[in-house]
Structures
1.
Amino acid sequence: MADDFDLVVIGSGPAGEQGAVHAARLGKRVVVVEKEPVPGGTAANTGTLPSKTLRETALYLSGYRARGLFGVETVLKREATVSDLLYRERRVKETERARIDVNLERNGVERVQGKGSLVDAHTVLVQREGHPDRRITARFILIATGSSPYRPPLYPFDDPRVHDSDELLDITALPSALMVVGAGVVGCEYACMFAALGIPVTLVDPKPDLLSFLDTEFSGLLRERMTALGVRMRLGHSVEAIQVPQENTEPIRLTLAGGEMIEVDQVLVAAGRSANTAGLGLEPVGVKLGKRGQVEVGSTYQTAVPHIYAVGDVIGFPALASTAMEQARVAVLHAFGQVQTISPVLPYGIYTIPEVSMAGETEQGLIAKGIPYVAGRAGYVINPRGQIIGEGRGRLKLLFHRESLKLLGVHVLGEQASELVHIGLLALVAGAGTQLFVETCFNYPTLSEMYKTATYDALQQLQA
Ligand SMILES: Cc1cc2nc3c(=O)[nH]c(=O)nc-3n(C[C@H](O)[C@H](O)[C@H](O)COP(=O)(O)OP(=O)(O)OC[C@H]3O[C@@H](n4cnc5c(N)ncnc54)[C@H](O)[C@@H]3O)c2cc1C
Ligand SMILES: NC(=O)c1ccc[n+]([C@@H]2O[C@H](COP(=O)([O-])OP(=O)(O)OC[C@H]3O[C@@H](n4cnc5c(N)ncnc54)[C@H](O)[C@@H]3O)[C@@H](O)[C@H]2O)c1
């Protein structure tokens, strides 16, 4: 005998939670199947929130924000320990799990613990050790099973000193020297955190450019700032060999192509992620999978089987918690008859030290498309709030269409970049331009005022 629902959601990360709650708010009968005993997925438990909390802890323990500000030198308050580093991470994680529990319960979403898989196009089998199997049927199925760290075969992950980004949260001692393999977003964020704590960090990636999706000017600025923080960049280099001695007092030796040998005592491998689709039974029911097991979907997140939707990391790019939640909203509303599309402009917030954030076009993108533009810049150094907080090297850049003066792109590097970008994001979504920034009265002194400064800079260049 099977239970019958309007929607069964597999996975309780940001995509699953939002999908379930949006359907429940439409009065639908919804169940979430989650294999772990706690909800929240990568965002709450191993990725987004833990890493952002560790960043905040690293900034606090290292006195980073106060360095040089008050005429006294603030360095690491004391030798930071792993428990110092992880204390708040644990608190934030617990609070977030409790918030998700309440959200699902308040909206009447049923929850079942166990590993879900499809036995036919309308039936999910839930299996949990020591419990009888359960079959759940539903009109619609939402696949929100997320992703897991990709583990390149070169690295011996069974050694306790070689970590992926999940295992990093269980370290028992801080590294005295760390090698970060992979200079994607995860690698860059963790490299900055450990460097801020005064730990020597080497960052290696076969790609020569740092975060090449960023505006080239901002990618360059970030590279400079990370280098100044103490991250040794080995971009355009691959690791050819790794030697991990049995005795953990002996250093781990990594040999780069070209012969350079680097000794460290811990290694973090952040080489991308693979979709969690193995064993889900998707292909037998007609759902199509692409590279690294990602589910193929259309613009409304329907798979090749129209009543089965997939959202979040399981469908691949851009693989962010922010976009996962939006995709889930669009998919569920579409399933229950409401036409919705995802915003055409999606922001990026990268929590390196300093933060970098962007929305819309990059300069190199506009040049490639042949779109005429003018760039306006504002430095934190000439902004009163920037001076007060001591962020001397941050920058905001606005890209406007040269004729219509509409905003085309916004780029920020510095304190609060991932918050500041939203002013530009809203302007982009609204189709606004220079006039909006000129005619808006901003609080004073604020970093947001840089929008006015950058706009005047762009207008002055046009006059010139
Ligand atoms: C270190 C790190 C930092 C990050 N920082 C950011 C950031 O700052 N901002 C941002 O927007 N994004 C960030 N991300 C990305 C973000 O965490 C993911 O994009 C987001 O968690 C994806 O949500 P999801 O719901 O698709 O998947 P997940 O959060 O991975 O959740 C999937 C859930 O499905 C469950 N599941 C899997 N298979 C089954 C099954 N067969 N049956 C039942 N349950 C199953 C899993 O247990 C899990 O709970 C970060 C990621 C990492 C790794
Ligand atoms: N602030 C944020 O929005 C945020 C933060 C962290 C993670 N995330 C998301 O999490 C996902 C995973 O991040 P990620 O950084 O692991 O993946 P990624 O795909 O962004 O970067 C992986 C990097 O590893 C390199 N690489 C691959 N194989 C390698 C190897 N064998 N040796 C050395 N380098 C290798 C690649 O060249 C690439 O630069 C991304 O989709 C990202 O968007 C987002």
Note: The radius of gyration is 24 Å.
2.
Amino acid sequence: MSFNLSSVLISDEVDQKCVKILEENGIKVLKNSKLSKEELLKEIPNYDGLIVRSATKVTADVIAAGKKLKIIGRAGTGVDNIDCNEATKRGIIVMNTPGGNTLSAAELTCTLICCVSRNVHSGDRAMKEKKWSERKALMGSELYGKTLGIVGLGRIGKEVALRMQSFGMKTIGFDPIIPAEVSAEFGVQSMSLEELWPLVDFITVHTPLIPQTKNLINDAVFAKCKKGVRVINVARGGIIDEEALLRALESGQCGGAGLDVFTSEPPADFTLAQHPKVVATPHLGASTSEAQERVAVEIAEQFVDLAKGKKLFGAINANAMTNALSEESRAWVTLGQRLGQLAGSIGGQTTGQIKVTACGASLKQAGSYLSAAVLAGYLVTKQQAGGDGIILNLVNAPAMAKEQNLQVEISNIDKCCRPYSACVTVDLGGGFKATGTTCSGGSVLLSLQGQDFPAPATLSGTTVVFSAADNAQLLSAVSGAVAGENVTSLTLSAAGGGDRWGVVNFLAPPSQKSIDNLKGVVKAMSAISF
Ligand SMILES: NC(=O)C1=CN([C@@H]2O[C@H](COP(=O)(O)OP(=O)(O)OC[C@H]3O[C@@H](n4cnc5c(N)ncnc54)[C@H](O)[C@@H]3O)[C@@H](O)[C@H]2O)C=CC1
Ligand SMILES: O=C(O)C(=O)COP(=O)(O)O
């Protein structure tokens, strides 16, 4: 997979260091955080990369309009403003910089907990209105000895726990993937949500907004909590059901809320933000100069590393590309794609299971990129002519294969079964089997349908692969059929096994006449453009 990242659009307020690093590395940058949706749609076709924070909504139509787009970078954590499924479908990498703003988001969470417990926001408002007398109404409560329930014990949840423990809070929590022993190490007693709700004085949520967490804190949950429970959301609007929260604030079931995020931003309705028991901030969790500098530098460096083929870091939808960037791996990716294309061209349908065997110690780490490469090559042969022009690559092939119930079973053998350092075999299960290797960076075929090629056959450019009855005149008959064409090589499988397989490589696509001539001397043939 090549990465010609020559131009990047930054459509949100990202620290200038990002621009500097990209430009220093020869990447052209336009930073414009004031583009309307229409302007973005007009601008995006000119760029290989896009960098956003949370404001730009990278919707399916924006992604589809990005005809050159190869990568979308999020200078921050949450990617819910990016249609990741559409990006994956179109083979576009999505990457983020999740660690860069953790401390800032954790600190704002702690700030909101303190503000809610001591009515700092109401006190400040009273002072600005010169209403000193309101101090009587603004009685708070200590955090010391209270219980904080943390839902989501990832990067931010953990940092919040560590900080609030210093106030003497008891920290309990829930996370479906963080084991209880791990959370115990940072002082959080793990328990089920049902156990947690009745125990907590404060709840803070630190999960992504996904179907399982949408409206996680709702009317039923408020009813299970102690009267006056206080809630904090510095994660994503919608994890706390906004309407249920308003009802709970009104009834007193909820004693106060600290909100940094909202279901729509800016909120369509400011009722919650304006509520006297709510301290609200306009999505400021990551808005510190430190966090912004970190995420800007990280995303720029991740882009540059990818453009230079050095490494892929922070991608959330490109597993198959890990280990696939080195010069050597790229040759194997190409071989995998070509074997897949060969399989699709001459092997017909699969049983739904493609077996890929990577032979040789050097291919030990190649499993995921080889499977994706074979799938990309195979699926290209099944694409409808005149389809939506999606180019198959290591990002979208695994997803597309999943949609078509196509699976790859990959196995690794330490020692190569052929006199090469490594080789790859693709087996469609009955209909097709081929083995190839790489030679000076190119792809070559070592065996097809059980027949070996004594001299490896080149898989490149315009190629015709055929099977023909074996006879002494086969080579001259095939040569005669394509006489006058610019043939770069003609390779036959070994004699003696019944029909033989042959591969003819052309410098330019052969004429219809030559194709017809060839059809007259072979049993079956496929013309493939590698
Ligand atoms: N307000 C702001 O400016 C910022 C907001 N965020 C948001 O904060 C949230 C957390 O970020 P990180 O801690 O960096 O993410 P993380 O990925 O490190 O942690 C999220 C945790 O949530 C857990 N989780 C998933 N489903 C869950 C469920 N149903 N119940 C309980 N836990 C569940 C995951 O297992 C994971 O451990 C994200 O939504 C992120 O977008 C992050 C940075 C700044
Ligand atoms: O990183 C995140 O998930 C955030 O919510 C921060 O958003 P922002 O980059 O400040 O628009």
Note: The pocket of 2-oxo-3-(phosphonooxy)propanoic acid (ligand 2) is lined by residues 53-55, 76-78, 101, 283, 285-287 (CB under 6 Å).
